[in-house]
Amino acid sequence: MSGDVAVEGGLLWVGPGQTYQDGLVYVRDGVVVHAGPAQPGIVPPGTPRINATGCTVLPGLIDAHVHLTTNSDHRNVIPSDTYRGQVTRPAKLLHGQRNAWRALAAGFTTLRVMGHRGVGEIELRDFIDSGLAVGPRLVVSPWWITMTHGHGDLFYPPYTPRRQWDTADGVEECRKLVRLQAREGADFIKVMASGGMARGEQPHWPNYTVEELTAIVETAHDLDLRVAAHALSIEGIRRCLAAGVDSIEHGSYLDRDAAAEMAARGTFLVPTMAFNDWCQQEGLLRGLTEQGVADLSDAHDRTLEAFAFAREAGVRVVMGTDSSGTLCPFGAHARELELYVKHGMTVDEALATATVNAAELLDRPDLGALRAGAAGDIVVVEGDVLADITRLGQRENIQHVVRAGQDLSAHLRTGLDVLDL
């Protein structure tokens, strides 16, 4: 569904370095017609209007790394492996729908979803796109590609039955799994290229050979799909760069040399700093053990160092939180941007990671900016976000969320009264 709306007044941020005082955005049939200084005669009589006086007007924001169908019940904090093994697929999808609403109400109108096999995120994406459900735009990888005894495979204990294509080993199996995911309706491919923090693995382990990763990337690119690589270890990152992946997710142990290579190749970094921050600050309240918090502390510290290396080298950073159930809650996405500013970015640079940079990674030039021809996704935030990025993370400041020209604010507020019980 799409609509017409005019957003008038306020501080209009249309992209990095481009602001207008007392701006005007006019959306017709879900597409931006005008975004810039207020001018007479642009908005036809009868168009619904939003008064943004005293507010900051932003493009709809993009979180490029979320795990949508994770636990949304913050009253019932359970370990992730218990949730994965004991919650039914329909229940996971309902959790995902609630998480999607929370993200949308926070001003994030697009989510790049690291999907879970057979849960229904592709179908939810299509329902939202066709107007049968309300939610953010979803860009979905239907499930990961991982090797036997790799990150993802080790999310499940050895006695858990494996289905065909839960893992792929060797060049030809990797190629086939990309093709199977494309047939499922994948928007992009996610590959596990290093170990992580699951029981029985180490983050410094590389996963997959350069040959296997190259097969995944070549096959995906042949089908116009981009490849996101979970890669913490430096060896995993190096292999990913040799294979030509499009984005490094996490990149915790990135060093200066690899950062320089990323910048030269145009590889994006999605740092997911919020997840580590939540785990260090509140992990014991969110399902982690003391040992789990301790195990994540080194990755947390190294992620900050890697972020500095990436910025120093000129790597293109894209915002992604790793939002995942109760560990890194949906609706708190702006925390990632706060951390970017805390660790050296200007507010303008941070906003770019969740708009134009993210849109470029997604290969969606219609998203992440307010200009003629762009999607009519708009967030109206009370106060001056450019002076204080923390305003974006306070729910009471989110005055309006517009998706494809439709002001969903009243609808979302009513729903959140139920969603946050």
From TrEMBL:
Coiled coil: none
InterPro entries: Amidohydro-rel, Metal-dep_hydrolase_composite, Metal_Hydrolase, Metallo-dep_Hydrolase, OTAase-like
Domain Amidohydrolase-related: 56-406
Leader sequence residues: none
Highest rank taxon of the organism: Bacteria
Protein name: Amidohydrolase family protein
One family name in Pfam for this protein: Amidohydro_1
